[in-house]
Amino acid sequence: MSEPANKRTPTDFLNSILGQRVFVRLNSGIDYKGLLSCLDGYMNIALEQTEEYVDGELRNRYGDAFIRGNNVLYISAI
Amino acid sequence: MELSVAARAALYNTPQAAMATPQLLPLELIDKCIGSRIWVKMKTEKEFVGKLLGFDDYVNMVLEDVSEFETRGMSKRIASRKQILLNGNNICMLVPGGRGPAVD
Amino acid sequence: MADTAAALTVEEPLDLVRLSLDERIYVKLRGDRELRGRLHAYDQHLNMVLGEVEETITMVDVNDEVQTQSLRSVNRTVPMLFVRGDGVILVSPPSRAA
Q: What domain range includes position A62?
C-alpha cells in the first residue's frame, strides 16, 4: 500500500502534542483541559493542571489527573 | 433448498466470480481516503466530518478541520476543532468524501 | 540514584497511580459516584483496593409538578473496598505541590 507523504498516524499526532495543553472530550460529554504529561496505547491519559467542564462550565480542578482511556472520545490540541 | 458444501463451493467458484475485480479490503478503502474529507458516524448520536490525516489498526483516526455534530433529533454542529485524535472504539460507520449530516 | 529518579518520574499514565500508593486519592466513577480513600493496591485494569473510603453518590431529583430538578448527594464511609476498574473515569492523586 502506498503511503502518502502527508500521512499523520495517531502515534505521530500523540508525539506532537505531548507536553502541550490539550482538550479531552469523554463519551459522557464531560470535558477536560490540561497539560498532557503522557498517555499509553489504551488512551489512558495523565494530565497536569487539569480543569473539568460539565456542560461547558468549570466544575473542578485537579493538580494531576489520570483518565481511563475507555472513556475518551477524542483528544485535541488547544 | 439444502446444498452440499461441494455444491456451494462450486456456485461461488464460478469463472465469473474469479474474474470479478480484485477485492478491496475495508481498511484499504479507508487508506485511500487519507488526505480527503471523511464523514464519521459514531455508535452514539454523534458524527464528525474532517480531513483524514491517518489511522491505525484500531481505526483511531487523526482528523483535521473537524466539525462535530450532535444528531439527536435535528442535527446540529456543536464544535469545530483544528486537529483531533478520535478514539476508534465507538465508531460505527465511515463515509468517504462525506459532506456530513443535513444541519438544521 | 538513577533508580530513584526513574521511580519518581511519570513515563506512562499508570505511573501517576503508582506514585499515589498509600496516599489518599480521589476517584470519579460512572454513575455519578465519587470516592476518596487511601490507595492500598491497584492493577493495570485500575481495579483498586481503597481504605478509609468516603463515597459520595449524586442523584438528580425531578419534581414533575413544578418542573424543577435538584441535586442530592448521599455520603457514606466504608473501611475497605474493592473498586472494579471498568467503572473508573478519573483518578487524581493528592496535590504534590512542593
A: 5-77
3-state DSSP call for residue C84? Answer: coil
Question: The domain that contains A53 carries what CATH number?
Answer: 2.30.30.100
pTM of the model: 0.84
Q: Does B36 touch chain A (CB under 8 A)?
A: no
H-helix or E-strand spanning residue B26: helix B26-32
Show Cβ contacts of residue B85 under 8 Å, excluding neighbours closer than 6 positions.
Answer: A10, A13, A14, A74, A75, A76, B60, B61, B62
**CA A12 remoteness from chain centre:** 14
Domain count within chain A: 1
> pLDDT tens track of chain C, all 98 residues?
445 555 567 789 999 999 999 999 999 999 999 999 999 999 999 999 999 999 999 998 888 888 888 889 999 999 999 999 999 999 999 765 43
Cβ atoms B40, B49 nearer than 8 A? yes
Q: Is A46 touching C (CB cutoff 8 A)?
A: yes
Whether residue C88 and residue A68 make contact (CB cut-off 8 A), yes or no, is: yes
Beta strands C33-42 and B61-70: pairing type? unpaired
Contact flag C89-A28 (C-beta cutoff 8 Å): yes
CB contacts, 8 Å: B28 with chain A: 1
